[in-house]
């Protein structure tokens, strides 16, 4: 349906040539904009209803005092069901620190939250298929679990800024569940839609725009000679380096990955780019620097960059 609407508007209404770069880009932009925003509203509303019954704050308190493997798993689960971008994950990261949850578990949440969320997963299924979505989720869980264990081994508590230990994080609406009836829960879910869409719409549009430009204007020959060749060892590191200065969440970067895959870029290279944009964005690192000192920040960047490259190489080798 969305492809048909895109074809009608781009080729019938705007009279663009289907064979031209502009025509292909505009058709892709219209199709993906409609598809992603419709799915966003529906998915966020449904997950808002779920969160009206299960408070993320309650999950956070459950993590306290549990064995590390269980706490780490719960932190990743919490990160996976909270549709936060990398920057908005930092305040809850501070809440974990204030609650004296071990930093290894805290970093598991910080890694998983921007990388894995239900909105991105459903969008991946709808746009790229359940196989790609499953691969991405599995890779994200492994990266969050193993990466947080590596961070923990370096005892990062010594690098947390002193003032953070004294911060008292005030509960927000996103961390609470409504205890009212159907109307109150509907209001909560609809407010989730408005707040989250308002927070991310620009980055989604930017991501769609980049994906459309990539789809229409980047020559196939260049793709095949560079990123599309899985034998080029530098393709995966290049994807990670390109992703760091770009700020988006997993939802906003999906159209870029879609365009890359359509151009023949290997799945591992595409996932490495997606992960680096979602979990290693420059704005997140600047905010995180206010919480942890340089040694911990450099360690965080290094661990994730190596993990993303490992995922990229692995998936390129398998597929």
How would you characterize this protein structure?
The chain is an all-alpha fold and 319 residues long. It has one domain (2-318). 74% of the residues lie in helices and 0% in strands. The chain is built from 15 helices and no strands. The protein has helices at 2-13, 21-51, 56-63, 68-80, 86-98, 103-115, 118-128, 130-153, 182-217, 220-225, 235-243, 250-262, 267-279, 282-289, 294-318. Helix 2 runs antiparallel to helix 7, helix 3 (56-63) packs antiparallel against helix 4 (68-80) and helix 8 runs antiparallel to helix 15. The protein is globular and about 60 Å long. 42% of the residues are buried. Residues 168-177 have low confidence and may be disordered.
Briefly, what is this?
The chain has 319 residues and is an all-alpha fold. The chain is 74% helix and 0% strand. α13 (267-279) runs antiparallel to α15 (294-318).
Keywords for this entry:
mainly alpha; globular; 319 residues
List the helices and strands and how they pair.
Elements: H1 2-13, H2 21-51, H3 56-63, H4 68-80, H5 86-98, H6 103-115, H7 118-128, H8 130-153, H9 182-217, H10 220-225, H11 235-243, H12 250-262, H13 267-279, H14 282-289, H15 294-318
Category from helices, strands and their pairing: mainly alpha
Mean pLDDT figure: 77
Strands, count: 0
Termini, distance in Å? 30 Å
* Backbone shape: globular
Report helical residue fraction: over 70%
For the record, the count of structural domains works out to 1
Work out the radius of gyration. Answer: 20 Å
Give the percentage of residues in beta strands. Answer: under 5%
One letter per element, helices H and strands E, the order comes to: HHHHHHHHHHHHHHH
Subcellular location: Cell membrane
Family: Belongs to the UPF0718 family.
Pfam family, one: ArsP_1
Transmembrane segments: 36-54, 74-97, 103-125, 132-151, 200-218, 230-248, 260-282, 294-315
């Amino acid at each position: 349906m969305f492809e048909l609407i895109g074809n009608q508007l781009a080729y019938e209404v705007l009279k663009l040539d289907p064979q031209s770069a502009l025509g292909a880009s505009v058709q892709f932009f219209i199709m993906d904009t409609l598809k992603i925003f419709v799915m966003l509203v529906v998915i966020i509303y449904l997950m808002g209803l779920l969160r009206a019954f299960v408070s993320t704050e309650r999950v956070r308190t459950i993590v306290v005092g549990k064995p590390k493997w269980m706490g780490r798993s719960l932190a990743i689960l919490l990160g996976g069901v909270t549709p936060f971008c990398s920057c908005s994950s930092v305040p809850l990261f501070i809440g974990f620190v204030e609650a004296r949850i071990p930093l290894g578990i805290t970093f598991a949440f910080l890694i998983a939250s921007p990388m894995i969320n239900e909105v991105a997963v459903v969008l991946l299924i709808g746009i790229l298929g359940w196989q790609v979505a499953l691969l991405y989720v599995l890779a994200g869980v492994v990266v969050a679990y193993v990466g947080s264990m590596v961070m923990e081994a370096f005892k990062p508590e010594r690098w947390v800024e002193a003032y953070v230990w004294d911060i008292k994080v005030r509960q927000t609406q996103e961390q609470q569940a409504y205890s009212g009836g159907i109307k109150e829960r509907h209001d909560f879910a609809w407010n989730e839609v408005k707040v989250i869409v308002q927070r991310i719409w620009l980055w989604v549009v930017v991501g769609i725009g980049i994906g459309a430009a990539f789809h229409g204007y980047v020559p196939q020959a260049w793709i095949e000679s560079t990123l599309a060749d899985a034998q080029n060892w530098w393709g995966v590191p290049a994807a990670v380096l390109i992703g760091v200065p770009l700020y988006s969440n997993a939802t906003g970067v999906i159209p870029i990955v879609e365009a890359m895959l359509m151009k023949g870029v290997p799945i591992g290279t595409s996932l490495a780019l997606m992960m680096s944009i979602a979990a290693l964005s420059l704005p997140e690192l600047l905010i995180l620097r206010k919480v942890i000192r340089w040694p911990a920040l450099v360690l965080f960047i290094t661990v994730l960059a190596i993990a993303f490259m490992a995922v990229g190489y692995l998936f390129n080798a398998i597929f």
